[in-house]
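Good day; I would like, with your permission, to put a structural problem before you. A protein sequence and the structure tokens that stand for its backbone fold form the material at issue. Thank you for your consideration; the sequence and its tokens are set out here:
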Amino acid sequence: MELFESLIVILLGSVLVNNYVLAQFMGICPFLGVSKKLDQATGMGIAVTAVMLLATAVTWPIQYFLLDKVGLGYMQTIVFILVIASLVQMLELLLKKFSPALHKGLGVYLPLITTNCAVLGVAINNIDEGYTFLESMVNSLGVGLGFLLAMVLFSGLRSRIDETNVPKPFRGLAVTLIAASFISLAFMGFAGIVDALFA
């Protein structure tokens, strides 16, 4: 039961409390760039979640069974970037073949998952936190779901903004950043919720 509770704490913490986009400000580029339409935001969130899970499944064993064993821990960042880039290329080929509409909708932001600091950040943070393989996978799932949640919520907010008469000085990027800050402030309300649930 203790393992289950710790996994739930990790999952809820990474989705709500330590949301990479809204609390740690990682992955802002796709958050701002692909959140205009709900289907594209959802597709990007699912793609990023898939890459995070795959990256963790590959990078965790590489770190502990290869880099640490041969004393090349300092190569972590370079190796992880190469792994993530390879996974994104595979994902792009799969989307192009099986979902051309989503591939076209994501456009340039799909290959940019390679440089999405949230994907690299979750892989490195899993190692830095000393998580086991299972805990790393749960954390990556939580971070991906948090990214997806932020994308979907922000997409809904942006669609409402597009329907309103925004004052001229706030049109465009200004109102987008203000809306993002409101969502970020709303997520601050989840701080302490995980501790309260299992106190």
